[in-house]
Amino acid sequence: MLHDASGGSRAAADELLPVVYDELRRLAQSRMADERGNHTLQATALVHEAYLKLVDQTRVVWQNRAHFFAVAAKAIRRILIDHARAKRSAKRGGDDAPLSLDDALTVPASSGDPGLDFLALHTALEKLALEDSVKEQVVELRFFGGLTGKETAEVLGVDPRTVDRYWQYARAWLYRELTEGADE
Amino acid sequence: MSDDPGRPFAADLFAKAMDLAPHARSAWLIEACAGDDTLRAEVESLLAAHRSAADFLNTPPFDADLGAHESIAPEDLSGRTIGSYRLVRMLGSGGTGTVYLAERADAEFEKHVAVKLIRRGMDTDHIIARFQNERRLLAALEHAGIARMIDGGVTEDGRPYLIMEYVEGVPIDRYCDTHDVSLRERIALFRTVCDAVHHAHRNLIVHRDIKPGNVFVSTSGEVKLLDFGIAKVLDVETGAGEASSGGVTVTGLRMMTPRYASPEQATGQPITTATDVYSLGIVLYELLTGTRPYDLATGSAAEIERVIREEDPARPSAALEKRLRDARDQGASRRARALTGDLDNIVLKAMSKAPPDRYGSAEQFADDLGRYLDGLPVSARAHTLRYRAAKFLRRNRALAVAGATVFVLLVGATAITTTLYLRSERALTEAESQRRKANRVSEFLQERMSAVDPVETQSGDEVTVRELLREAADRIEQDLGEDPDVAAAMHRTIGNTYKNLGDYAKAEEHRRAEIALLEPMFADDAPALIDARLALGRVLFERGEHAAAESLFRELLPLVENDDSEAGRALVASVYRDFGDVRMARGAYEEGREWLERGLALRRALPGERDEELAGDLNSLGLLLVRTGNYEPAVTHFQEAIERMKNVRGDHHTFIGQIENNLGWGYGHQERWEEALPHFREALANYDGVLANDHPFALMARGNFAQALQSVGDWEEAERVYLEVIAGFRSRYGDRHANVGHALNNYAMMVDRREDHDAAAALYREALGIYREQLGDDHPYVAVARHNLAGVLRSAGQGAEAEKECRAALALRRRILRAGHPDIARSTELLGTLHTDRGEFREAEPLLNESFAIRKEALPAGNAVTAYSELLLGLCLFELGRTQSAEEHLARAREDLLAAHGEDDARTLQARAALDRLRNAEPPVGNGETR
Fold first, then answer.
1. Which of B19, B180, B209, B483 is catalytic?
2. CA–CA dist B647, B611 (Å, integer)
3. What is the distance of C-alpha B81 from the center of its chain?
4. CATH number, domain at B868?
5. Domain range holding B826?
6. Which of A156, B309, B362, B809 would you label with B632, given CA atoms 20 to 30 Å apart?
7. Are B705 and B807 in a shared domain?
8. Which domain-ending residue is among B692, B719, B754?
9. Is residue B429 assigned to a domain?
């Protein structure tokens, strides 16, 4: 079953993606009561919440919890990319909106890793996937999905030590890619 | 690059290199690559990237990154009509929806309004239903400082909207910064915010989301609160139901702004008006310091919750100073000083973690700020300290006795009422002839009984003893009816054994039977009869029948005093002691002391080894010295008594247990519980296996033990022991005995510490009733119970009742105790504190002065209780503006408290805070502005 989510039937996972995508965004937005981009929750918490909701309420058949997390991690990645794209276009045309009855929500620069460019990360990840798609998935699950090494291993059906090795490698690889990106 | 055939190897080599120690990697790599420089460079660059990557990708993205998307390009509905309003332009967009500037579509009035259109996704039936409910409430809210809710409804496509007064202005923090608003003006402006919030609270509406972004200052300089109650309308209650169904705890699901959220919001506890007071506190903190009280920037929901619940913010003055220093402001400390003291206290009080510790209302908050502006004393100080004390208590339950104003010391102590050996010998000599005639059976019985008397043999197998006693008692009449002399001896033995078993009722019965047999045979002053009546007196004494015992001793005194023989003088000394004991027990301490001292002096003058009797005398006098507050001589008396008793009875004996108990009791009177504890343990060890668990001595020692446990912080064990002791006393003596009163009184202290004031008051009242009934209205214990009752009433907020009881206790103590008695200090201190509670410092001062003076005299130098008295006095003097003597007292109190309790103790902190305030007294008005 694990294979279905991780590799075997990617198409099945992709079908479910929009559902998770919408749910995560809705949850995230309803949490966004803070002003000026004070972060409230890590995405991980949202994934858990979305899981509860979607497992309860949709007719989608989830093969297992791991399956869901794989899709959720992908959804979060997608949301962040869309967000980063929107931010880029907003910056081009936008001006400073006047203050309103509600706090004008400025867009947070990024995540707990300030200065992280999600678009660049996305591009680098796609490149890494060409070399080894399992490593891409490790990053997706661990970073976007917020899963631990053990959970990641469970989702991918591999040994946790392998996940650790891949994670170390992928982090170094991506870091190099993002810091020296142009030279590669 | 991805086609590079070396790549897969690079990954493997990288993994292997990572398994090595960092310094070993390069050398290993050179070897592993075997001259393939491209491969080596590739792996080296990965290793280098690994070294610099630090926390790269280690923290998952936040939900803000996910949710913020929509706010970039929200659907712009400008130009549409909602209700009777046309949306003119979008003003902004936030987590809950989008706000538009709008005008009436019919253009009847050229009035602008703000329309808040609730975000899609929040338009569930549940929310809409609640929304309809709430907006009616909100529409009723009319106050100049609150942006009015004009209307609301649901659009055709089902989205709720609110129409609100349009406010042209900026958030209060920005307003203050851009207009260079002075410190005093900031406070004044903030007070108008409090007024508006208070108005809403009176209409039972809680804002729930107070933050600068919701507190606007209009272009005309007026404060307007926005979004009142909106948070409640929109609070998505998605969390609770799903979390429980899924078995996963999802925190942080509530709608809140973490930066201004109270602990109760962060933890999902009920929201009250106190929640708004907290958020107001944070807003003021930020307005005064320009910084945030908590760093919530990075952290999971759980971490945010922890910080909000547990972390203490820096004092505003310290936060401001740090910020200014960081900005290299030359006048940092001078400007920060303007916040030191009152403003620190006011802000921190509003921000208290526990809602009850905050201001009771936004109005009280504003009032305190008003007092600050007017240069009047503010209320925040005491409560902030109480908060710290409470916090300290949470951390360390051991803070018990001395910090509270109620001091109770009422523990059982026992006089040693031994059989008078000399006297017995004399009686035996005189009764020799009769004894010769004694029946062998009775002799046998007596011996057997003596063999099982727990006090004589120090091995108590009580069941056997009781059976034997009952059997023997039944047989006295039938076996010895013909021989009253022997029968009397039997009753004496049985009575004495019952007394030692703690069964005083049975003991009295047999002593009376003995006397009844002896009276027809002897004259009143015959030694046998005197002996029997003295023994009866002691039983009565133990039973708590003090009046009866006293009159008996009074009758006997003239009968024995004439005997000038050595044995006779020894007897007189014992009667003096018994009489002194009973006078003491009846509260006549000074008279009791005279008798006891006379008895002791008389005994010391007698020739021969009299260690056991002397130990008894010393013990009684020691008890009296404790009761009259002469602790040091009391301790030496007990110590001598123990030594002497050991000379005759060996290291372990119930008598030694009694004296150990009394010694611990003496330490307890001085609040030296750590020292008291081993003595109670020693007492119990001496009783163990000899006396039954519910023997009166054991009950008393255990009651004391419980008190010591409680005082050193072992509440659970203390409570367990108390309950046993109360039950034991009740079954031994019935419900109305003074010992039951003691146990109830002591247990009440325990209940009081749990803040269950009503239950504690009821227990004190019961104890008081017992004392008045059993001991009379003028007994010192009546004063103790009244005093304690007063203390608990004070805690329960019933100041007037408390004062009444306290005055009664003090008046009684002044009347019956010697001047300078420590108990008088307890009551003057409590009464003084009741005055300071009401701000009546002038009335409090002489009372606190007296309590300090008495303690200083009675207790060893540096004593923690004295130090606390001095602290109270210093605080009072400070309030009265007598800064110089206040500082002297506070400095000394602080030193002693520091030595006694350590730096973190609530009392030490209190002294330090007071000293800080004193030494950094605010500069005159006008000097306290930030710019």
1. B209
2. 7
3. 62
4. 1.25.40.10
5. 756-919
6. B809
7. no
8. B754
9. no
B422 within a domain of the structure (yes/no): no
Residue B815 lies in a domain: yes
Chain A residues within 8 A of B119 when measuring between CB atoms? 29
Same domain, B18 and B109: no
Q: What residue type is A72 in one-letter code?
A: A
Which position has the token pair 């701000």?
B839
CB-based contact A112:B298 (threshold 8 Å) = yes
Give the gap in angstroms from C-alpha B199 to the nearest C-alpha of chain A: 21
Residues 6+ apart with CB under 8 A from A165: B15, B18
CB B260 within 8 A of CB B122: no
Chain B positions in Cβ-Cβ contact with residue A139 (cut-off 8 Å): 57
Q: Is B209 a catalytic residue?
A: yes
Q: Residue B93 sits in a domain of what CATH number?
A: 3.30.200.20
Map residue A9 onto helix, strand or coil.
coil
B543-550: long-range contacts (C-beta < 8 A, 24 or more apart)? B543/B504, B543/B505, B543/B508, B543/B733, B544/B733, B544/B737, B544/B738, B544/B739, B544/B774, B546/B582, B546/B585, B546/B586, B546/B775, B547/B586, B549/B578, B549/B582, B550/B579, B550/B582, B550/B583, B550/B586
First to last CA, chain A: 38
CA nearest B512: which of B478, B545, B479, B464? B545
* Strand partners of residue B81: B86
Q: What is the CA radius of gyration of chain B?
A: 40
| Pick among A87, A88, A100 to test the B interface (most B CBs inside 10 A) | A100
Report phi then psi at A151, rounded to 5: -65, -40
Q: Domain residues of chain A, as ranges?
A: 2-183
Which residue in A has a C-alpha nearest to residue B13's C-alpha?
A: A169
**B208 in a structural domain:** no
Helices B780-795 and B738-753: crossing angle in degrees, nearest 10, is 20
B324: closest CA of chain A, how far (Å): 24
| Same-domain pairing of B750 and B761 | no
H helices present in B272-314, as ranges: 273-289, 301-310
Identify the helix (H) or strand (E) that includes residue B538.
helix B527-543
Taking chain B (931 residues) in runs of 10, the rounded mean pLDDT of each run is 55 87 85 85 88 76 47 63 84 69 72 77 58 69 85 76 85 89 92 92 81 87 82 45 26 56 80 89 94 73 76 88 83 78 89 87 91 79 41 29 27 45 40 42 50 53 59 69 74 78 83 89 81 88 85 89 81 89 85 93 86 89 88 92 87 86 87 87 85 80 85 82 87 83 83 82 92 86 90 88 94 87 88 88 93 87 85 88 88 88 76 77 36 34
**Whether residue B322 is found in the same domain as residue B384:** yes
Do residue B740 and residue B791 come from a single domain? no
- What pLDDT shows up at residue B192? 95
Contact A171 B50 (CB under 8 A): yes
Pair (B155, B286) in one structural domain: no
- Asked if the Cβ–Cβ distance from A52 to B297 is below 8 Å, we say no
CB B741 within 8 A of CB B780: no
Model confidence band, residue A183 (pLDDT cutoffs 50, 70, 90): very low
CB contacts, 8 Å: B258 with chain A: 34, 38, 40
Domain count of the fold of chain B: 5
Place of tokens 């024995």: B560
Strand order in the sheet with B223-225: B169-171, B215-218, B223-225
Closest Cα to residue A44, out of B243, B242, B307, B61? Answer: B61
Q: Are residues B718 and B738 in the same domain?
A: yes
B43 and B134 in a single domain? The answer is no
Nearest-CA distance from B925 to chain A in Å? 36
Contact yes or no for B95 and A105 at CB 8 A = yes
Give the distance from CA A62 to its chain's centroid. 19
